[in-house]
Design a protein that fits this description.
Elements: E1 2-3, E2 13-14, E3 20-21, H1 25-33, E4 44-50, E5 53-61, E6 65-72, E7 85-86, E8 93-99, E9 106-113, E10 118-121, E11 137-138, E12 145-146, H2 149-157, E13 166-170, H3 188-202, E14 206-209, E15 213-214, E16 227-231, H4 238-250, E17 254-259, H5 285-288, E18 289-290, E19 295-296, H6 303-319, E20 324-327, H7 330-334, H8 356-372, E21 377-380, E22 402-404, H9 406-417, H10 428-431, E23 442-446, H11 458-461, H12 466-482, E24 486-490, H13 515-531, H14 534-537, E25 546-550, E26 558-564, E27 570-576, E28 582-589, E29 594-600, E30 615-617, E31 628-634, E32 638-645
Parallel strand pairs: 13-14, 13-24, 14-17, 17-20, 20-21, 21-22, 22-23, 23-24
Antiparallel strand pairs: 1-12, 2-3, 4-5, 5-8, 6-9, 7-8, 9-10, 9-11, 15-16, 18-19, 25-26, 26-27, 27-32, 28-31, 29-30, 29-32
Helix pairs in contact: 3-4, 6-8, 12-13
Amino acid sequence: MNKERNVESIKPVISPGGHISLFTEYDIELFKAGWHYRLYDKLGSHIITVNGIVGTYFAVWAPNARQVSLIADFNNWNTQNHAMSIRWDGSGIWELFVAGIGNGEHYKYHIESHTGYMADKADPYAVHCETPPKTASAVWNSAFEWTDAAWLERRKRGNWQDKPLSIYELHIGSWRRKSDAKFDFLSYRELAAELPEYLNELGFTHVELMPVMEHPFYASWGYQITGYFAPSSRYGRPEDFMYLVNALHNAGIAVILDWVPSHFPTDEIGLGYFDGTHLYEHESPRKGFHPEWKSYIFNYARNEVRGFLISNALYWLDKYHVDGLRVDAVSSMLYLDYVREPGEWEPNEFGGRENLEAAGFLKEFNTVVHTNYPDTITIAEESSAWPGVTHAVSEGGLGFDLKWMMGWMHDTLKYFSVDPLYRSNHQNNLTFNIYYIFDEKFVLPLSHDEVVYGKRSMINKMPGDTWQQFANLRLLYGYMYGCPGAKLIFMGSEFAQNYEWQHDYALDWQDSKGALNVGVQRLLSDLNTLYKEPQLHENSFSYEGFEWIDFNDTVNSAMSWVRKAKDGTFFLFICNFTPVVQYDYRIGVPLMGQYNELLNTDSAKYGGSNVLNGVLQTTDIAMHGQAHSVLVTLPPLGMMVLQWQQGD
């Protein structure tokens, strides 16, 4: 078992004059160069022992401040009593040791600049915060007994590319609630009592948590962060979040956190205009202000800012044992003209629209993460055609492991929204993505962004009457699991929630009790079980794992393809995108013999009409470029999965 931070293990550096610091000269050199990736062990507040006296050491970077004072509970928030001292080495770091204070002490930094600007700022490196709407930082020494050593050891020995990645995306504040009261959230520990079992019942391998970092505005969903190092105190203490991660690991569930290095809010307590200058953000609004989100953009050219962000990424992997980071809004980072009109942005040094500094930062981020934690994964939410997002940095890529396949999502949902009578003219929406699906390593995302702000829930995106809507949704999920790539489904979509997601309320769990809804859940559980077979995940990012049988039958709106494991074994997928049963439909197959129906989304156990096939025998009639074929009955708005078996 690993117990988190021990006060006695933090050794201060005491100068001959009695100045107390956690920084060595080497630390400062790394900090200035932007190569200090463990700044969370130096900056912020740390409970330490100095000559037998326990107290708290505070350190904050504010190079352009005229004066920085510690204001806190213990000094009644008086700006005059605890002035901090700036280091003599040009680092811009202010320090102070206060004896006798420790866990739970609320504090801020009162900063006065040379320009006359004054503000009370939260600690950028605080590991705990007051519960919003309060905004103070909190001294905190987390002590937690981890019991996930076996999980971490298995993670080191595994290769994520040869394993299933079935991701359940979750917003902590609205998955479940204790009551209908607006902010009656489940705590991290209460979530730990329910979530792991639920995910295992459905067969998901990963959970992706929308940002847990502290954010004043709940309705930002966590994407407007002021406390980058602090799990939101809305749901408990830091060790309570550790408890949740630990419980998920012990249940066999990997944890991915949404991470937001693309922008930060303008709240005065936050990073913006931190020391009376644009310290963390660009000075020019044409580079430093995001017009769509009304937030600041990090200055990736500044060494200390890159150190802050990369330290933050490592912090969650280090202190919270998380298994991966999904980087939000990468496209907004990569393009200087993102949601800007001509004249509202500054070109790069070569006159282009590419943000070369941001691209360099992302390469550095991925390099450092994979050097320190090679068994974790990084995922880019990136919607453009930027080349090599998931290619190695050494090959000119950005170095991510995976990328959300936004094109697949848009094209697929567009197709499924079409009335089946007219789908024959739109089949290219489904087949086109195969031309580039192996250019990157993709996640197929049906995320929170698709079920908010009037976009409707997944079930209500489907056309037709109630039966057809559910059949279409089952077909969508079956088609998704048959495609190459990792999978992601947002909470509530697994049981076909009727209303779109609303962050102020819990999911509509009453919907999950309907017979058709239960069928969707049961199907997803079976799809996740099937996905654990090597045919569906071993070659998920390679052409070696995919082969078309037929994608040209637009008249019948039918498609068929093969998914293959490394040993050559395969599953055959056949989809009927119409509500009409198609009898005696001939499909070419790779091998002669018997084919068993492993899964059929039209099965009665899923709420379907139970048009099944059972065991099929090949004939020597050539079809679809194959020497053998089978006659199947295509279920209405259904997908079937066949497995070859040697015949007599």
